[in-house]
Amino acid sequence: MPHPPAGPSLTYLGAQQYRLSMELRFDPGWICGLSHGLAERQISITRVEAARGSGRMWHARLDLDFSATATAAADVDYAALCRLPATVQALAEPVVLDDYQLERSTRAAGSLYVEVSGPDRLGVLSSVLNTFSLFSLFPSELLAETRHKRIFDRFWLKGMANRVPSDEAVAALRERLREFTC
């Protein structure tokens, strides 16, 4: 018998670090809304592992750093942040990348694999995800990590309704990523 979805749960990791675990049904842009809402609250995401299961069911684990905020981890409505629109207003600073890779993938039934690296700053994940959503591209799986103030993020993107990304969307995203690269 399948187990019911698990709402957001927090695990304290020490030194104002928490792990947020969720197993819920979400719309395609849920991670964009969540990452934007956390950045607005000065909560840093240091790692994300998320993958879509069947339908809109997602399994996600995020490591969060609360050291730059007075917000208590238990006071954040994570599920509500996941329902923010996918194309939320990007944060003030533009995205700056050192490098990117973009190629078609057989993973996730015909996704677009995108890998980005560069300097970290609060809200960079939100800005990258917002860029994807401008081209109607949304992660079906992602692994985002911050180490030594550097991002190394990998995304497997699909179009709306879990479709294979169009050639036009891929070309437009490639051009945008080129603009972000130093």
Describe this structure in words.
- By secondary structure, this protein is α+β, with helices and mostly antiparallel strands.
- The protein has one domain (6-180).
- 23% of the residues lie in helices and 38% in strands.
- The protein contains 4 helices and 8 strands.
- It has an 8-stranded antiparallel β-sheet, with helices on one face.
- The model has no long low-confidence stretch (mean pLDDT 90).
Biggest β-sheet: strands ordered side by side in the sheet? 1-2-4-3-7-8-6-5
Fraction of residues in β-strands? 35-45%
Instruction: Provide the low-confidence segments as ranges.
Output: none
Biggest sheet record: 8 strands, antiparallel
What average pLDDT do the residues reach?
Answer: 90
What is the total tally of β strands? 8
Structural class: alpha+beta
> How many domains would you count in the coordinates?
1
Radius of gyration: 16 Å
Order of helices and strands: EEHEEHEEHEEH
Q: What is the number of helical segments per DSSP (H or I, 4+ residues)? A: 4
The rounded distance between the terminal residues' Cα atoms is 51 Å
* Apparent shape: globular
Query: What is the helix fraction of residues, given as a range?
Result: 10-25%
Key features of this structure:
alpha+beta; single chain; globular; 182 residues; 8-stranded antiparallel β-sheet
